[in-house]
């Protein structure tokens, strides 16, 4: 009996992994003013990581572009404006691409 339960549990875990591995992600390129130093970038990264579904974050200090990749989560403009304002930056625009 234990062997069958273990097999079912293992199968569910595998199915969950396969769904995540092939899940569609969205990549956001977010233009931000005031992004000048790594310490500033860390504050934004910390706030973005608090959002559910965030997979990857990259920041280009030279261009002021924050790249965020998410699973099954849509980042709304109002949400991003507030997040960056709370972090002390000015949100300018976002561009999203399905991956």
Counting H and I runs of at least 4 residues, what is the number of helices? 3
Number of strands: 4
Question: Span between N and C termini?
Answer: 42 Å
Helix content: 40-55%
Briefly summarize what is shown.
With 99 residues, the protein is an alpha+beta fold. The protein contains three helices and four strands. The chain has a four-stranded antiparallel sheet, with helices on one face.
Task: Provide structural commentary.
The protein is an alpha+beta fold and 99 residues long. It has a single domain, classed as Alpha-Beta Plaits. The protein has a four-stranded antiparallel β-sheet, with helices on one face. It starts with a helix and ends with a strand. The relative contact order is 0.24. About 8% of the residues have low confidence.
Describe how the helices and strands are arranged.
Layout: H1 2-21, E1 25-33, H2 38-49, E2 54-60, E3 65-71, H3 77-86, E4 90-98
Antiparallel strand pairs: 1-3, 1-4, 2-3
Keywords:
99 residues; Alpha-Beta Plaits; 42% helix; 3 helices; alpha+beta; four-stranded antiparallel sheet
């Amino acid at each position: 009996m234990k062997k069958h339960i273990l097999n079912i549990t293992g199968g569910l875990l595998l199915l969950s992994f396969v769904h995540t591995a092939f899940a569609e992600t969205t990549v956001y390129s977010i233009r931000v003013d005031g992004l000048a130093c790594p310490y500033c970038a860390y504050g934004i990264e910390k706030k973005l990581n608090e959002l559910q579904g965030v997979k990857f974050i990259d920041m280009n200090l030279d261009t002021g572009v924050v790249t965020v990749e998410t699973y099954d989560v849509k980042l709304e403009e109002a949400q991003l404006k507030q997040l960056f304002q709370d972090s002390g930056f000015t949100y300018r625009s976002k561009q999203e691409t399905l991956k």
